[in-house]
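Translate sequence into structure tokens.
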Amino acid sequence: MSLLETTFVITRLSPYLRNKASRLIKSPKIYLSDSGLACHLAALEQADLSPSQPFLGPMFETYVAQNILSILNSRWKEAQGYFWSVQGRNEVDFVIEAGRTCMALEIKSGMKWDERDLAGLKAFLSSTPHCKMAILGYNGKDPVRLGDKLWALPLGLILS
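Result follows.
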């Protein structure tokens, strides 16, 4: 695994935990660093990635992970990327922490969302008072304010 990470084939994303020492022990999330390679290894072609395709969400998350992490590495060096999960109840795809503040980012491949898609972000906001904002990134065109610290933003805006 270390060789794959050193050669930038995979990227490890540690869990976001209050105890920073525990972050080193808990299981990381692993992404292939190239979403094209991920699709190739899964034998998926562009025509296969329809909304009904079960791999669409994970492949899309891989694509966003590769872009978010490269933005952090090149433009915001003091920031670290994590994921957050509470024993199968709630999860957030990305938590970006810089210093004593953080923000949460949930990714949806669709052009619409519903209240269920916000559950992880709301749970994270309620359990993490120092979180500045929670963002649902989606494939729509309009930014929408959903609450005090909660937004739905087009992924094109987030990744630009």
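Note: The chain has a mean pLDDT of 88.
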